[in-house]
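About this split. The held-out portion is used to measure sequence recovery: a designer receives only the structure tokens and must propose an amino acid at every position. Recovery is the fraction of positions where the proposal matches the reference. Here is one held-out target exactly as it appears in the evaluation file.
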């Protein structure tokens, strides 16, 4: 092979193809452009509505209940929210709404609830009636509790409680009339158990209890008779206690007095 041919081959091998380098440069440029665009998009935000204060279930939403914050435009769908306060002002809370909640369409409704709603968001069950009841004999109470209702009969009249229950259960009264002309003993009677707490007014020391119309009528009748009423805080998942359960000091037994409470499956 001649020297001229060898030189030509060497020069030919040194001539590199510029296309790969051009493609790499273009790729870097495109990547840089998309990075800048993504950065700019990530920095863009839009207004969303959040709660400025608590709004109980059923309460109409006012302008003062809302505020607007800016969130990134690209965010999880769970944080989509509502962008315009005007679209929800005048609607009603579909559940208890808390301050700083991100307002979602499912959290509001166009029409108010059909049943009365208390400030804590609890609604009265159709067909039931609310009865105000003093919490002085109960102590701390929340709307998640239940209440047992009872009364005291200072005169010890058995027909007020014992005979009424005996007639219902078709049995003889628990307290038989004494053979001697002794005055009857005063007693306490648990009227019924498990009344639902709708709302507690702590300042007034009054709880609004949900009762049937007949139960409500009995409460008013006992108050009209001047019999002192009392209540017991009771768990919502505890068993229902016997109605018209009468007890005077002469019926107390040490065995039952010291028997531990039987836990339910939910308590264990």
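Reference sequence for scoring:
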């Amino acid at each position: 092979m001649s020297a001229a041919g060898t030189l030509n081959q060497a020069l030919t091998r040194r001539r590199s193809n510029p296309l790969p380098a051009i493609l790499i440069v273009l790729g870097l440029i495109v990547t840089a452009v998309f990075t800048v665009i993504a950065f700019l998009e990530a920095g863009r935000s839009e207004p969303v509505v959040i709660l400025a204060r608590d709004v109980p279930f059923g309460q109409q939403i006012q302008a003062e209940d809302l505020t607007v914050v800016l969130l990134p435009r690209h965010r999880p769908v769970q944080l989509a929210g509502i962008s315009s306060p005007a679209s929800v002002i005048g609607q009603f809370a579909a559940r208890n709404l808390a301050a700083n909640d991100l307002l979602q369409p499912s959290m509001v409704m166009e029409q108010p609830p059909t049943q009365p709603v208390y400030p804590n968001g609890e609604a009265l069950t159709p067909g039931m009636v609310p009865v105000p009841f003093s919490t002085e004999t109960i102590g701390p109470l929340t709307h998640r509790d239940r209440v047992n209702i009872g009364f005291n009969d200072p005169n010890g009249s058995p027909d007020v409680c014992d005979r009424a229950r005996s007639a219902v259960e078709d049995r003889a009264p628990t307290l038989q009339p004494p053979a001697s002309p002794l005055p009857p003993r005063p007693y306490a009677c648990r009227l019924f158990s498990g009344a639902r707490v709708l709302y507690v007014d702590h300042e007034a020391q009054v709880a609004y209890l949900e009762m049937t119309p007949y139960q409500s009528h009995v409460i008013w009748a006992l108050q009209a008779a001047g019999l002192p009423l009392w209540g017991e805080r009771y768990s919502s998942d505890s068993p229902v206690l016997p109605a018209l359960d009468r007890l005077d000091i002469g019926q107390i037994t040490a065995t039952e007095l010291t028997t531990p409470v039987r836990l339910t499956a939910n308590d264990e």
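Annotator remark: The first strand starts at residue 45 and ends at 51.
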